[in-house]
Amino acid sequence: MMPIRSIVIGTAGHIDHGKTALVRALTGIDTDRLPEEKRRGITIDLGFASLEVNAPDNSQLRISFVDVPGHALFIRNMLAGAGCVPAVMLVIAADEGVMPQTREHLAICELLGIADGFTVITKADLQGESQLTETREQIRAFLKGTFLGGDRPIVTASARSGIGLTEVRAELASLALRSSSAKGIQPMRLPIDRVFVKKGFGTVVTGTLLSGDIRVGQNLLLEPGARSVRVRGLQTHGIAEEIAQAGSRTAVNLSGVDVADVSRGQLLVDSGDLQASDKIDAEITLLQDAPTLKLRAQVHLHAFTSEAMASVSLYGSEQGKPGTKRLARLKLSEPIVLVPGDRFVIRQPLPAGTVGGGRVLDAHPSASARRSETQRWLEHMTSAPLAEQARLRVQRRDAKGITAGALAREMGLKAEVVRGIAADLVRSGDLVMASADVLVLRAAFALACDTALGRLKAAGAEGMKRSILQSQSGLSEAILTAVIDQLVAEKRAQIQGEKVVIAGAAPAISATETQRLQEVIAVYSKAGLAAPSVKEAALQLRIGEAEMRRLITLLIREKTLVRMGSDDVFVHSDAVRKLAGKLGPMKGKTIDVAAFKELTGLTRKHAIPLLELLDRERVTRKQGEIRIVL
Question: Which domain holds residue 349?
Fold first, then answer.
C-alpha cells in the first residue's frame, strides 16, 4: 500500500474575504471553533481542517489547512500559523480586491520563504463576468514579481454557490503532487500551536511536523526548558497512528507534563538533537516601506509558533535602510529552538507593523569572537553550500576542533548527514578526523603538530611525558592523541616508555640557551606580522647581533621563524599560518597591496616582504599589480 502523500497549506488574506467559508465548503469543517469567533463572525485564532482527494493516478492525497485570522489585531496568530506551512492559498474577495492585510500577509509569506501556492478570488457570485475579468487583472498586477505571480494559477470561486470549487480542489491536488517532502536531513521538530486536555487521555499538543518522525512510546524533550515527556499516542488528521511523518498535521498525547506547563511556541524535539538559544546571527531583509531600523532597535521576532522580543545589533555602522539586506545579531528575551536556514519575521511594537524578516545563519554564535571576524565569517556563510558551511564551522574552532555530534547540533542536521559531509571533507583533505570523533581543519592540525614538535625539540633527548606535552601545547586530549599518532607515523617522534621523544633527538641544549631561544621566540611571537629587524630584536634583548643571528638560525631550522625575503626580516611561523587561514576563505579572489595592508593593519615596509613570502609559499600568486589567493 502506497503511503498517503500529505501537504499542509495555510490560508492568507484580508478579514472577511472568505478564507474560513472556503475551507468549510472544501472540507465540511468549520475552523472557527471559539465561542467568540462564532459570536463575532470572524476568525481570531488558528483553525484546522483536512481534505482527502485522489490524484490523477488514483493515489490518495491528504491536504491539511491552517486557517489564519485576517484581522490586523490578530496578526500574531496569523504568524504562528504561517510560520510552519510550505505553501499558501491566498484568498481575495471579488467585491473588495487587494486590501491592507492582503499586502501584509503576502509580504509575510515571502519573508518566511514560502515559495508555492495559488490565489483564489472568492465571492465570485457577487460580480459579473466583465467585473471579474477586471478584478483578475488587478490582482495579477499586484502579484507580479512575487512567488504567486507569473503563471501561477488564479482561480475564481464562491463558497456560497459552489462555483469554482472543483477547480480549487484540482489546484490543491496539483500543489500536493509537486510539493517536495519535508526536510529529510533535519532532526525531528514539531512547533506547538495548540494545547488542550482530552478526557481520558490527558495533555494533547498539536502542530505541523516540520521534519523527522514521531513514534508512539518515544521519549522527547519539550523546549525551551528540556522537559522530558513521553508519547502516549498519535493522531494525524484525526486518525490514530503508530508513526507520524514529516509534513503532516499531528496531535501528540503526552505523558509527564501537565497542560498548564505547555504553551504555544514550545517545540517537541528528540533528546540531545537541538537546543534553544537566546542569541542568533542572521541575515535580515527589510521591506521597501519599512522605517529605518536603528541600532539596538527593539522588535517582535516571530519564528514558527514562537514569539520573543529581540534587540537588533547590526553588523557595520550604518542603520538598516528600507529595502536592504543586513547582517545582524539578535538577542532574544527568551530562548527559542532555531537552526541555520530557519526563517522569521520581525515587527515593530509601535506603531505595530511588519518591518522585515530574516534567515538564521548561526543559532549559537560565539560570545568571544571579534565582531569584525564574525561579520566576515557570516558573509561567507550567506551563500556557502552545506559542505562549505561545515568547513567554516570547523575552521573557527582552530586547533580545539569540534565533535561531529556538536557540529550536527550547531548546523541543525541529523548526525548521520553531518558524518557523511565530514567524511567527504576528510577524504578531500580539508579536515582531519582526530580521536573521539573530533573534527579539525587540516591547517589547524598541522599547526598543532608543529607546536607539539617544537616542544619535543626543546626537550631534546629527555623527551616529555604526555601530560606535560599536553599542558605546554594547550591541546585537547583528542587532538594531542591524533598529533602524536601523526608524528610517530611520519617518524618525526617516537614513544619511549611513558615519554614522547623527538626522532633522532640530539642532546638537550643547555638551560641558558633554551631560555635565550624562548626570549627570541617571545619577541617575534608578540610582534606578529610586524616583526622587528635582527638589529632591533638584538637591541631589545640586549645581546649581540651575531648571537641573535645564530639563535634565529636555530629557530629557522625548527621552522619556528620564517625568512621573509632578506637576511634582516623574519616572522614567527604561527603568524604566517594565521594569515594564511584568514586568506583561506578568499580562495580564487584577488587582493592588491592596499587591500592587504588594510586586512593586516601593516605598513608597506612589512606588507611587501610578507606578500613575497606568501608568493613563495604558494598562498598567493602575483599577477601584475595584484595577487590571486590560491
Answer: 277-362
